[in-house]
Amino acid sequence: MPKLFHLVASPRADSESSAGARVFLDRFMQARPGFDIDEMNLWRENLPEFDGEILQAKYARMGGRDFTEGQRAAFAVAERMAVRLDLAERVVISTPMWNFGIPYKLKHWFDIINQPGLTFRFDLARGYLPLLKDRPTLVILASGGDFTTGMSRGRIDLATPYLREALRFMGLQDVRFVAIGPTSGPADHTGAARERAHKRLIELAVQF
Ligand SMILES: Cc1cc2nc3c(=O)[nH]c(=O)nc-3n(C[C@H](O)[C@H](O)[C@H](O)COP(=O)(O)O)c2cc1C
């Protein structure tokens, strides 16, 4: 059964990014009932600290050295997490904007899975080469401010360029972004932003 991998990066029960994902996935599943949804909630998963053996495993790989036993075991966790992403035909990431960027749990996930020989490789002549296959990917980004036309009251959106680059680096280039914002402020503004985003998500779901 083809899989859609949904990475949930908001810890909030009334999360706007998660609500947007639900709207998208409901419509997607109507259009493609054969898909299986694999949801990974980053706040419920046990992500290993990126220090010690797993960190040394990365440096061993980068230096072309064999793993020690401990490094091999630590690296296997990163492998399993990367394979979970790679098994999917479609990817959805729903995330808040936190302090101009992404929540630390989502960055933590990238730090774990983005490994030489796993998601990318380095070639002296050709530089960095992605190892994952490209596939339709959607990022639903909720923010307190409105970044749909650029900056929001003097603040920059660093989440969008970071995610675009981090995904491209691994091989995921077919990435669409749907912004939900402002999610704070007068109810008519937040309501209009939600409605606009949900409409776009429903449109995207049928062609995804
Ligand atoms: C720790 C933290 C940092 C935040 N930083 C920003 C920010 O830099 N820019 C912004 O527009 N909103 C910011 N917000 C507001 C959230 O982006 C907003 O509440 C959004 O709806 C959260 O996504 P969620 O509803 O899916 O949880 C921040 C919220 C928190 C909790």
Please provide a written account of the structure.
Helix content is 42%, strand content 19%. The chain is built from six helices and seven strands. The longest helix has 21 residues, at 187-207. The protein is α/β, with parallel strands linked by helices and 208 residues long. It has helices spanning 16-31, 52-62, 69-86, 104-113, 159-170, 187-207; strands at 3-8, 36-41, 90-96, 120-123, 127-130, 137-142, 175-180. The two termini are 17 Å apart. Flavin mononucleotide (FMN) binds at residues 10, 12, 15-18, 96-100, 142-145, 152, 155, 183-184.
- Alpha carbon gap, first and last residue: 17 Å
Q: Please state the CA-atom Rg, rounded to the nearest Å.
A: 18 Å
Per the CATH scheme, the topology name is: Rossmann fold
Low-confidence stretches: none
Strand content: 15-25%
CATH class annotation: Alpha Beta
Summarize the structure.
The protein has helices at residues 16-31, 52-62, 69-86, 104-113, 159-170, 187-207; strands at 3-8, 36-41, 90-96, 120-123, 127-130, 137-142, 175-180.
Task: Describe how the helices and strands are arranged.
Blueprint: E1 3-8, H1 16-31, E2 36-41, H2 52-62, H3 69-86, E3 90-96, H4 104-113, E4 120-123, E5 127-130, E6 137-142, H5 159-170, E7 175-180, H6 187-207
Parallel strand pairs: 1-2, 1-3, 3-6, 6-7
Antiparallel strand pairs: 4-5
Helix pairs in contact: 1-6, 2-3
The chain binds flavin mononucleotide (FMN).
Flavin mononucleotide is lined by residues 10, 12, 15-18, 96-100, 142-145, 152, 155, 183-184.
